[in-house]
Design a protein that fits this description.
324 residues, alpha/beta, Rossmann fold, 2 domains, seven-stranded mixed beta sheet, four-stranded parallel beta sheet
Length: 324
């Protein structure tokens, strides 16, 4: 198979995640190590539709291992969602002589990869999203860095909340999944953590936790809210109405996406990028690289997209036990 693969493309799509650059670097250098040319596709699937590309060599990815964001940029593409747009993307692949494409991103990226594979272009997906919500992989690039960023911010907030004896409501990312919120909540010793996977009982999950904490002598409270639960501003208003305290609301927003990736994200991104190219060389394209029990495996893309991942709710039990 190796002698048949002459040139591949690499792109990043969807929301950016720290470690994407490390994955791009690994794809390029592993390709070169296998005598395969590499073409960088700018702005995700949109770049493939509009032929926005450039040849990449070893120097193209020098000194990007520690950089956040993605040097290939990322964008949503409404055109790629249409049959005409996908046909144009295939035409670009044929024009450039691409034998395969490595797509780095999340669920939307992989669904685009599936459509492209059905049109005859081999694709390998690399999971990168700070939400860690890709069903086929125990871990996704960017999660550890996002957690550490949120923890650092909340630790600083706690300093001022403690000084003024206040309640802080902090909204973190996680529109459909609470992995980030729960992980961070345990790490910062939150009074309460609100996640999409658990139906909200405001009296028990917020009011009673604050009351219990106050009766134990605490004068400051930290409420971590995943954005999928609702607006932190609304949660803050409801706390004020129910208890009479005046919370300070902080929405961390896109700061969680930025920053230099942690050692964990650099290492796993490098291994995933390497594995993606090896899957192409070994004839295992049309797959997604996933982590399972510390190992990387290539899972057929349709099978991978059908897989689900559930939040480990025993972590919520750990959170509750820490509040005695």
């Amino acid at each position: 198979m190796a002698d048949k693969v002459k040139r591949i493309g690499v792109l990043t799509s969807g929301g950016d995640a720290p470690g994407m650059n490390a994955a791009v670097r690994a794809v390029v250098r592993t390709a070169l190590d296998n005598d395969i040319q590499c073409v960088g596709i700018r702005r995700g699937w949109n770049g493939l539709v509009h032929s926005d590309f450039f040849p990449m060599d070893s120097s193209s990815v020098s000194h990007i291992l520690s950089r956040g964001g993605t040097i290939l940029y990322t964008a949503r593409s409404q055109e790629f969602m249409t049959p005409e747009g996908r046909d144009q993307a295939v035409a670009t692949c044929k024009l450039l002589g691409l034998d395969a494409v490595v797509a780095i991103g999340g669920d939307g990226t992989f669904r685009g990869a599936l459509e492209l594979s059905r049109l005859g272009v081999p694709v390998v997906g690399v999971p990168a999203t700070i939400d860690n919500d890709i069903g086929c992989s125990h871990y996704t690039i960017g999660f550890d860095t996002a957690c550490n960023t949120a923890i650092e911010c909340i630790d600083k907030l706690r300093d001022t909340m403690q000084s003024h004896e206040r309640c802080s409501v902090v909204e973190v990312m996680g529109r459909h999944a609470g992995f980030l919120a729960l992980y961070v909540g345990i790490a910062v010793g939150a009074t309460a953590v609100l996640i999409p996977e658990r139906e909200l009982d405001f009296q028990q999950d917020v009011v009673e936790r604050i009351r219990r904490s106050r009766l134990q002598g605490n004068t400051h409270f930290m409420i971590v809210v995943a954005e999928g639960v609702g607006s932190a501003v609304d949660i803050g208003k409801r706390i004020h109405k129910e208890i009479g305290i005046d919370p300070r609301v902080t929405v961390l927003g896109h700061i969680q996406r930025g920053g230099s990736p942690t050692a964990r994200d650099r290492e796993i991104a490098t291994r995933m990028g390497y594995s993606a190219v090896k899957a192409i060389v070994d004839g295992s394209a049309n797959s997604i690289i996933g982590t399972h029990d510390g190992k990387l495996i290539a899972i057929p893309i349709e099978e991978a997209l059908a897989m689900t991942k559930h939040l480990q709710m025993e972590r919520y039990d750990v959170l509750e036990a820490m509040q005695v």
